[in-house]
Design goal:
Elements lengths: L2 E5 L7 H13 L4 E4 L16 H10 L5 E4 L2 E2 L5 H14 L6 E4 L4 H6 L7 H18 L20 E4 L3 H10 L2 E4 L7 H4 L7 E10 L6 H12 L6 E4 L1 H13 L4 E6 L5 H12 L8
Parallel strand pairs: 1-2, 1-10, 2-3, 4-5, 5-6, 6-7, 7-8, 8-9, 8-10
Protein name: NADP oxidoreductase
Keywords: Flavoprotein, FMN, Monooxygenase, Oxidoreductase
InterPro entries: Luciferase-like_dom, Luciferase-like_sf, SsuD_RutA_monooxygenase
């Protein structure tokens, strides 16, 4: 049966609110929580945003069972040897709950603004491939014993890659345990599945969740107003409708859902979604 992750961008929220939401997700049946990785909030640079690895570490310290990851860490932000050490440390500190999500960088203007890179998309994907190869060496699973860092991972650290370009999909097939399909392409999942090798497929899905007692039309209209630009990446409805919707996604090949809430995930929404969607969910067997 598919897994459920709460996608929780760490923008516009206090750190205590991120912890509170993550704890609510853990108590409500979510398997994991994922953050984003930017130096400024996408499309709203005036809004404060917290650093991605630090937030994951802090949430790990305040939770017990929920897995932690990112959609996705930007390869350009971290030198590979340092990233390898960070990942091993967080995986150990969290009791094996950390997953390493990586991408080549989705906002070139951000990279240039902070003097990180002016490379084009092809060069950035090539650099990500070099990072992935280096990680195998640092973690003791590659072909360079002289490059192994100590300690090596106590258990394999799952790698998740996002993206749909041909070069990225080759990296997915070679290195990834998980592959994530961006929200705007959720309706194309079957197109990409043959290219991801043994990786498991996840989808990023914005949800306009109509909670009990709420006006359906109002909630759906607000969701469309805020996130209609996501196209098929926005789904709306009450619990029963969402169970059917996610069941169809699983039937089509999704093995994990990164759920992103149009109301910015207040605790009550997380709890009700867990009680009325996740716990009764029957997946493609329904």
């Amino acid at each position: 049966m598919a897994e459920w992750f709460l996608y929780l961008p760490q923008s516009r929220l206090a750190i205590a609110e991120l912890v509170e939401r993550s704890q609510a997700a853990e108590a409500s049946g979510f398997d994991g929580v994922a953050f984003l990785d930017h130096l400024e909030t996408p499309m709203a640079p005036e809004s404060p945003i917290w650093e991605a690895m630090t937030i994951a570490t802090w949430v790990a310290a305040h939770t017990e069972t929920i897995r932690l990851g990112h959609l996705v860490l930007c390869d350009v932000f971290r030198q590979p040897a340092v990233l390898a050490k960070q990942a091993v440390t967080l995986a150990e500190a969290s009791g094996g709950r950390f997953e390493l999500g990586l991408g080549s960088g989705s906002m070139p203007a951000e990279l240039a603004k902070f003097n990180l890179s002016t490379a084009g998309p092809v060069s950035r994907v090539d650099a990500l491939g070099e990072t992935l190869a280096a990680l195998t060496n640092y973690w003791g699973t590659g072909d360079r014993p002289d490059a192994v860092q100590v300690p090596t991972p106590g258990a394999p650290i799952p790698i998740m890659l996002g993206g749909t370009g041909p070069r990225m999909l080759k990296l997915v097939a070679k290195y990834a345990d998980w592959w994530n399909l961006p929200a705007t392409k959720v309706d194309q999942i079957e197109k990409y599945l043959p290219s991801i090798g043994s990786a498991q497929a996840s989808v990023q899905q914005m949800v306009a969740f109509v909670r009990a007692g709420q006006d359906r039309d109002s909630i759906l209209e607000k969701g469309r107003r805020r996130f209609g630009h996501l196209g098929p990446g926005l789904a709306g409805g009450d619990a029963a409708q969402l169970i059917t919707y996610f069941g169809n996604l699983e039937r089509r090949g999704a093995q994990r859902f990164y759920v992103w809430f149009a109301d910015f995930a207040p605790v009550d929404t997380i709890i009700e979604f867990g009680e009325t969607v996740i716990r009764p969910y029957g997946g493609f067997r329904a």
